[in-house]
Specification:
By secondary structure, the chain is of the alpha/beta class. 40% of the residues lie in helices and 19% in strands. The chain contains 14 helices and 14 strands. Strands 3-2-1-4-5 form a five-stranded parallel beta sheet, sandwiched between helices. The chain has a five-stranded antiparallel beta sheet with strand order 10-9-8-13-14. A hairpin with a 2-residue loop joins β13 and β14. 39% of the residues are buried. Bound molecules: arginine.
């Protein structure tokens, strides 16, 4: 074994490892493999970010049975919602125009918790189950190195030469329970309270529409109710605080929005994506909460923002999404951008009603005490007060001046 980067641990250097443990096949094989290959002790850490249907006690028992000294379970839903998802909402965060970044937002929090628990449990190394082809390795390792420069990192899946079949064989040999027999699950899944992704298997064929079995969270639009539902999303300073007038804490609000959106088939995204490591990959996302809340937020922001703010902010939103996608949660530019997002969102208070119907979610009503909107001015009725129609011709003459000059120069006779 050799190392490419200074933070990679060689077998002799590892005493005790903090393993980011999901309970799945890769990290279960790792749990044993690290004990065998590195002759190291393993402490496991499992983080709850609101992955639906996960039984964390089962995961913990499995880790202990496979020889972990301990398995920490951290319920980080609250911190994830407040410190990661809410800023993403203020930044209307969508990477590549469609991916609301749920995985990308979760990784820096998981890595931070790993550094904290590694220090508390006397670990010198952090291990994770990422492959060498994805973005998650970049996000986790960048964050670990930033926050815990004394720690080393191992990513066994990146180095070991085992394919799926060999992993299953290794698991059998070492008494690791394998879910669902030796049938490889068709998709690679990652999820939390802000969304769910499926990759791999038949999804890799770009020419094929998604198979129905991909969608485990969102009802397929064809099967969604025939009756539309209106959902009023209330915001205070850019933070969603209520649904249909009922005040909710962030975690419950996001879960409730996901449930309602999912029922109406809202939030299916078929996305070909530019990974940070150069690959183009197709993901199928189910993001019902984001598909309801992000457009509602954007609509309200537009209502309270000036033409200048509304033209400018999307550029910064895109930069925010890119930095988060790219694993640079601790990049100073991101906190600079956050200061801007917060300043704009000071005024983003009000309510937007979204109409959900068979896969679509569109704003149908909005109100805000800060709206830069005056029904009397905008209407076709009488004018006067702040707006004088008599001024418009003068405005048009000056507004079009350069365009008119340029046009006439470019169309001079003889050219
Ligand atoms: N393409 C998304 C991203 O890079 C989702 C990745 C899902 N991660 C996973 N380990 N399956 O953030």
């Amino acid at each position: 074994m050799h190392r490419t980067a200074s933070y990679e641990a060689l077998p002799g250097e590892v005493g005790r490892v903090l393993l980011l443990y999901s309970g799945g096949l890769d990290t279960s094989v790792m749990l044993k493999w690290i004990q065998d290959e590195y002759e190291a002790e393993v402490v496991a850490l499992t983080v709850n970010l609101g992955q639906p249907g996960e039984d964390f006690d089962v995961v913990r028992d499995k880790a202990l049975r496979l020889g972990a000294l301990d398995c920490h379970l951290v319920d980080a839903r609250e911190e994830f919602a407040r410190e990661y998802v809410l800023p993403a909402i203020r930044a209307n965060a969508l990477y590549g125009g469609g991916y609301p970044l749920f995985t990308a937002l979760g990784r820096p929090l998981i890595a931070k918790l790993a550094v904290e628990r590694a220090r508390e449990s006397g670990c010198d190394t952090i291990a994770h189950g990422c492959t060498g082809k994805g973005n998650d390795q970049v996000r986790i390792e960048s964050t670990v190195m930033t926050l815990g420069p004394e720690l080393k990192i191992i990513a066994p899946v990146r180095g070991w030469q085992m394919g799926r079949e060999e992993e299953i064989a290794y698991a059998r040999e070492h008494g690791i329970p394998v879910k669902g027999g030796s049938e490889a699950p068709p998709y690679s899944i990652d999820d939390n309270l802000w969304g769910r992704s499926s990759e791999g298997g038949p999804i890799e064929d770009l020419a094929e529409p998604p198979r129905d079995d991909v969608f485990q969270l969102v009802t397929r639009p064809e099967e969604a109710p025939d009756q539309a539902q209106d959902l009023a999303v209330g915001f205070e300073r850019g933070v969603p605080v209520s649904l249909d007038g009922e005040r909710l804490e962030p975690v419950s609000l996001l879960e409730r929005a996901a449930e309602i959106g999912a029922r109406h088939g809202v939030g299916i995204v078929d996305h070909v994506e530019d990974r940070i490591v150069g690959l183009k990959v197709r993901d199928l996302y189910e993001v019902p909460a984001a598909a309801v809340i992000l457009p509602a937020h954007k609509e309200l922001e537009k209502l309270v923002g000036t033409i200048h703010q509304n033209n400018f902010k999307p550029h910064l939103d895109a930069q925010w999404a890119f930095l988060v996608y790219a694993g640079l949660w601790h990049e100073p530019l991101l906190s600079d951008l956050d200061a801007f997002m917060d300043a704009v969102n000071e005024h983003v208070t009000g309510t937007v009603t979204m109409r959900l119907y068979k896969g679509s979610a569109r704003p149908v009503a909005r109100s805000s005490p800060n709206a830069l909107y005056d029904q009397a001015l905008a209407g076709f009725g009488e004018s006067g007060g702040l707006f004088s129609q008599a001024s418009s011709p003068g405005f048009i003459e000056l507004w079009s001046l350069q365009t008119r000059m340029a046009y006439s120069i470019r169309n001079r006779e003889g050219r």
